[in-house]
Amino acid sequence: MRDIFKGLLKENPIFVLALGLCPSLAVSTSVNNALGMSLATFLVLLGSNIAISLLARHIPDEIHIPAYIVVIATFVTLVDMSMQAWLPALSQSLGIFIPLIVVNCIILGRAEAFASKNPVGASILDAVAMGLGFAVGLVAIALVREILGAGSITIVPGILEFAVPGLSEKPVLVFAFPAGALIVVGFLQALFRWLGEVTEK
């Protein structure tokens, strides 16, 4: 359980390792987008960790990074096509940021630093830990930004949508823009690092 939850505080990809900040800032305008990106990233991370853990010893050192990118790109393509087929509205909302998972530092970083050096079981646990940490971070950013910047919470458009009294009529629009995303990330990063220090003590 300690390994699974390490991605929440001690090694949170967004707030501690500062990885995957580009999609974190870009798609965190709504909780719905954050959940969709978290799911897509987790599936790619899980698939690539398993595949690279199995293949790493058979890949020459000279070409291991290009080989890892090919593996990751394969899983990104599968996830992207699946979302286009079954979740077209979410796929359209996330746009280019689904294909850009290929160059997400979280995916390649875990492949290089962990999956290539560990067995499949440990690599699956690592994918769960990092995927959970990324999801918690991204949803936390999106929740704050959507509440303050739009005065709403959108989990499933048209089905699970909630208006926040007071803010729905007069939202703080800066949080709907990139500057607001940076402010939220900064404060949450400080909070998560403080929590990490407290739990260590």
Q: Please, could you describe this protein's structure?
A:
The chain is mainly α. It has one domain (4-200). 62% of the residues lie in helices and 4% in strands.
Summarize the entry for a quick read.
With 201 residues, the protein is mainly alpha-helical. Strand 1 and strand 2 (160-163) form a beta hairpin. Helix content is 62%, strand content 4%.
Total number of strands: 2
From the spread of the alpha carbons, the general shape counts as globular
Q: Total domains, how many?
A: 1
Number of helices, where a helix is a run of at least 4 consecutive DSSP H or I residues: 7
Strands of the widest sheet, in order across it, are 1-2
**H/E series, N to C?**
HHHHHHEEH
Can you tell me the residue ranges where pLDDT is under 50 for at least 5 consecutive residues? Answer: none
Average pLDDT rating: 89
Query: Helices and strands: which structural class?
Result: mainly alpha
Determine Rg (CA atoms, Å): 18 Å
User: Quaternary status of these chains?
Assistant: single chain
Sheet having the most strands: 2 strands, antiparallel
| Fraction of helical residues | 55-70%
| Percentage of residues in DSSP E strands | under 5%
Distance between the first and last residues' Cα:
19 Å
